[in-house]
């Protein structure tokens, strides 16, 4: 059908390319498949047509194969009987070439029966061929399309299709005995926003599609259409196909002395290619457009007093099917009034995969919906809409309102109303609320039917005599304005006297002068083991920065390996965290494979990077080599990674910077000219992984380090050299170590560190390598020597047990774990008394039974000075932490950040432009954290060529860049406004160097008011007669029931809905 677009007619056009099959013997074979997809486990007959052979009454033998994935799943032989009748079917073939003119032949038909099974992937192919007596192979191949097919039949059903929110719902699940099934349920509202969240059998089939072998180019036989391999891609399409196409389409290699390439040759070098090899194809370059075609008695009370549980997903369980009988699960359904789409995916060792789905409606006839932002900033005025629905059969006089903590939330508008709500009607209460407190603030909506009050509803209306009610509660998470910051004061306290002794310490927690009022809170912790804070956090939050690329995933994996090694090596067997650590390592290992390149190297963003990173691959080898002591990993993978590393070593023994080196310190100083830091890092990784290294590899690598050591080095590079040589037990190890130790800075409190002219993260990592080299070289004798460095390192630790970035956290954790294994104090018995001017004295006890636990107590008021008195013997790690917000951190001069918000045509956007200001060119990996303004949500990114990864969190978006240069890099975020917030506060965009978080730039932004059209501007200025808006809800099946066709032009309405008056100003004189 022709369509008009702005006066221009679009005529639909379809193009079809037909290619004739050719045979030098004039014999052909054609497979005819049904138009419908094949059904699972159902016999389907497929017809074949072939030209009969003259002078061969005995007939021929046909061979068939079904190719699926990378294997032949079915094959056989067919021998048609001579009694088959010929059919009146001729194959006319006309060609201008006399050699290609073929007269008609008699055609026979026969059939083959196939029965699809679950082992077939969605793109299997059927191929049939036979050998002609003159030496030619006659063949044809066609694709076979299947409906979703499961040999593991899974059944999933709810006992009732409708249940009341908050009541048990019974779910029946059955599958092949021995299956493991995962279940889930998704809110229909979630699927309306994010359709890709639903996992369907069709998506499962698509996951299998990449396993299909790709079609091969047809074999180029010598003497036939001679064409060099280099010119293949420049060959034009041919008008003819032959049996070689059938084999190539099926990804089958042919080794034969028979003839299969028999198509005519053209002077322009035209040959068959898979792209042009379809028997009949439709060209996608037409000018037309193709459109997608898509073909009560009730209980008036809610089941719970207050509905408050509203997850978007539910029923995440893993179940083992132990019996053939159905497994019945009774679970309380969440409190949302919605439709839940449940699914089950089952896996059996021999029966394979199976899927099933079902839905259940969570309904009640009288209910409230509450709409508000999930997060707000203190001081903002947010919109709240409470809607009440009545699906009872009569009118109800109703009292409807909101209840909040008046000291924290100020409501603008009347929070309570009385009205008559009739059947299938809804009423909305629209208010604004200003938040003055921090934390989770509850907002509760109540609706109560006033059955004894007849004055509200009109006389004569049918009213409900039973009491209908519903209550709903949601939380608003109110954040403090500004940017979060924290400061920790730590100390490793040791009393080593043989009898009980005493000691005292003072911890001063200060707040900066610009700390946001009310945002501060403090905590004091104590543990008998220096790794207890890590164990208590479960390692999920040990790295404070976002962790969504290959290096950061590996850093968390490496930390799990370090902690597991410490637990086992120090004798803490059967620790509750041990099983979790093993699971984390296996999960991290599987996730890390996503960042692998085909040539066995790894990079931070996997296939998004042009080549692997030698530095990250070394980190991989280092981590995998340690992890395989505790979990089962693929040794072949580790061997291939190691070979890839060694294959890049120069003859000089140095390792070059291949791919991205995201940690700029390993690039070799400011100018990045030295290869020794990276060479030392690679050598350390290989040695810690116990890789098999030839003497030549070791000697040349050491030579690279020794030659570079003769030059002036920074402390970071020197620490790498010292640890590498210590691992090798090299003769220069002692000399290098003493040089490193002499550069340490000794503080007045007795701690030792290497932090001159470097960032905090680099100082932590340098100190970690220094401790490792000390303990590796001097063993137990190095414990006392390393203690000052250990004490300084512990002072840098944050409240979660981590440090600043990823690499410094991994190395510092490794150093502390090695130190802790050498210092085991099983008889620690300490009493710590903590007090302050605003806190009564409190005793905390550390003994062998709780040494691995982290004891925590709040500090009620900040700033504070804590007095700590310690008695007993042994060691303990104590820490006091202050958390607070500041308006904005101090910006550095390393980066420039431009933020341009816009709201043109009510389409909010945020343009970000960033650049690196230092003259020598490139930064390390950079993260831009965009905190979203209240009422807005992230939609998508445009101009994202430089963005390596996008990560969404609750109220912010993280953009990853592997580097920035002095050339400005820009990206635009497209947002969606969900709520109109009054008095919206500025929100921050933070740019941060991932490996040097001290290098930071912050810009605040405010999205301007929507630039509406004139109609909408006037609409917003209309006076509201009431905070209550009432409308009718059409019942099911009544959609457009009042719609009527009319012949005349409708009159314009009067009153509030009339057209707006237009005022034209008088012209100027």
From TrEMBL:
Residues 313-402 form the Alpha-2-macroglobulin domain. InterPro entries: A-macroglobulin_rcpt-bd, A-macroglobulin_rcpt-bd_sf, A2M/Complement_sys, A2M_N_BRD, Alpha-macroglob_thiol-ester_cl, Alpha-macroglobulin_TED, Ig-like_fold, Ig_E-set. SMART domains: A2M (SM01360), A2M_N_2 (SM01359), A2M_recep (SM01361), Thiol-ester_cl (SM01419). One of its GO terms (molecular function) is serine-type endopeptidase inhibitor activity. Keywords: Protease inhibitor, Serine protease inhibitor. This is Putative tick thioester protein. It comes from the Eukaryota. It comes from Rhipicephalus pulchellus (Yellow backed tick). Residues 1044-1069 are annotated as: Disordered. Pfam families: A2M, A2M_BRD, A2M_recep, TED_complement. One of its GO terms (cellular component) is extracellular space. Residues 923-1005 form the Alpha-macroglobulin receptor-binding domain. Belongs to the protease inhibitor I39 (alpha-2-macroglobulin) family. Residues 29-193 form the Alpha-2-macroglobulin bait region domain.
